[in-house]
Amino acid sequence: MAKLTMVQALNQAMDQVLAKDKRALILGEDVGVDGGVFRVTDGLIKKYPNQVFDTPLSESAIVGASIGLAINGLKPIAEIQFMGFYLPAFNQIVAHLARYRNRTRGTVNLPVVIRIPCHGGIRALEHHSEATEALLAQIPGLTVVMPSTPYDAKGLLIASVNHGDPVMFLEPIKVYRSIKEEVPEEMYEVPIGKANIIQEGTDMTVITWGSYIKDVMEAVKDAPYSIELIDLRTISPLDNETILASAQKTGRVLIIQEAPKTCSISSELSSRIHEKCYLSLKAPVKRLTGYDITMPLPAGEELYLVNKPRIHRAMKELMEF
Amino acid sequence: MVIENYDPLKGQMLQVLDAEGNLAQGFDGVLKNDDVLKLYQVMTLSRMTDKKALAMQRQGRLITYIPQSGQEAAAAASVYALTFEDWIVPAFREMAGWLLRGAKLKDVFLYLRGNEQGSKNMPKLRMTPLCVPIGSQIPHGVGISWAQKLKGENSITIVYFGDGATSEGEFHEAMNFGGVFKTPTIFFCMNNQWAISLPRSLQTSSKTLAQKAVAYGFPGVLVDGNDIFAVYLATKEAAERARQGKGPTMIEAYTYRQGPHTTADDPRKYRSTEEEEKWLCKDPVSRVRKFLEKRDLWDDKKQAALEAECDKIIEEAVAEAEKTSYIPEDIFKYHYAEMPQELQEQFEYFKSTLGGQHG
After folding, report:
1. A3-182 and A196-319 agree in CATH topology
2. Each residue of B206-250: pLDDT tens digit?
3. Binary contact (B164, A310; C-beta < 8 A)
4. Which of A104, A257, B134, B235 is the Cys-Cys partner for A108 at CB 3.0 to 4.6 Å?
5. Fold exhibited by the domain A3-182
6. CA–CA separation, B188 vs B93, rounded Å?
7. Whole-number Å distance between alpha carbons of A46 and A65
């Protein structure tokens, strides 16, 4: 089995999707000739010149046109160049993409995948390191996915294309080329809505996703506790079953997220765990999150992102509550 | 008005100084020799900053650099046509103009090293900070100029954006506002032919970008953006119109991005060296030098002296930027006039993680 990066795994997934289903198409800024600014769509326009389109610089039209393409039977995979740049399309996402199925009482579903590179850790310019998954997760009708490994990326992207409803597919930039792992050549799905228990443990549950998985795994390895580590993989809908069962089992939960703290995915997780597992908890849910501030420019980025000492401190505080 | 004679719908372009440095007849008074010398100096400083910054980026001393080469004439001559009372709303490829306005090269380097302090001094110069999300600054230019009108000021606003930005909704909404409220705005489009990998021909089916102004009810003019005389003249006239209460003008400066979009980009993926070489023949900086040499206003000795002077300015700015430390606490301090309680608690925790104490 070939060892691939996330970029390669996503490229392979889209290659196979475009080959298999002529209704599938890719559109976005610089996704064709340039192969995407991260080269995720590299080479695809050559193989599928009628299915890959470089668009004008118009995020709103990229999403809005994707809605129209889907209404008329095609399956667009749109790319927004960075998470800071989907906001011009927010009106289309909130007002239409998320609502069509409900608005038409099930007559029109929109099989649209919006791929968005997200999160920090690569010392990029302003607006290139956003972590706004909670904004998307709050919108009824949207499915929000974030893989953390090449294997999951390929399987989740294929599942997203086949999902039938709009999927916001968030790709952590930091992971794009930092991990290589074995990825099957054939098409396969990683189920949407299922979290992944990376390792089992009994002292505490640690929940994280996307760009933080690798750093958290390393911190977990060095920690003197038996830790159950969960990768959410799907941000919305959350996998209640896996999350709550683990919280009940360990009685202690630490949530680690890159986004700011207030009204975030960690807020929702904490709320659900307290609501459903109150009597099983040995300590209140602990959150190690971004601060409620704008992501600093690169010279200050390390001050914002979590690191191993901070993770270990949070674990210790949780154990000693 | 000269610009009225150039119909963007017919693709007519105002050019005064040709690529060989020859001035068209009748345009002698547009810029005096001293003006040309001043513009040449700042354009050279901007060009040499590019070289230095690209080298620094390769050495890991800058995060990502946004090359400016090729667009110095459009940036410098447009700002030169304004007064210090006028507002400048940049995108991110108008360095020669920022420097003319008085922006410190040190601040530019600070910003490019990923330090917010680099944007601190710009508003004092009646200039907004660099704007990364494409086209999102255009409505700000309309708002600033609208305020100028409402307050009865005689000043105007110039807002810069690229060819790619004309595909964003905010461009069209801002142009429409400007037309409706007759704001004293110059919509200055740096058409550098490329939006990362997308050529101008695939950005819009319009023959020119300047013609888009027609639909919003005010003039648009296409100028040779590598010609300081044409850019200066068009901007001066647009500013006059704005000051007289006649509303906005759109200027399309036809120019070329000689380098990559940023240092993270590789133009070999999407454009030919032949095209790049063709445009190098129209280079805006050497064009001014040719003009000056034809008039015996410039020689190798003066060039060497100017380059030495620019080197010194650049080295000092780099040294100052590199010795400016990042203030960790600053990431918390400027979100609200008064820090909310929750943020205050996060700040206390943050301080406990500094100084190597982490855990």
Report:
1. yes
2. 999 999 999 999 999 999 999 999 999 999 999 999 999 999 999
3. no
4. A104
5. Rossmann fold (3.40.50)
6. 12
7. 23
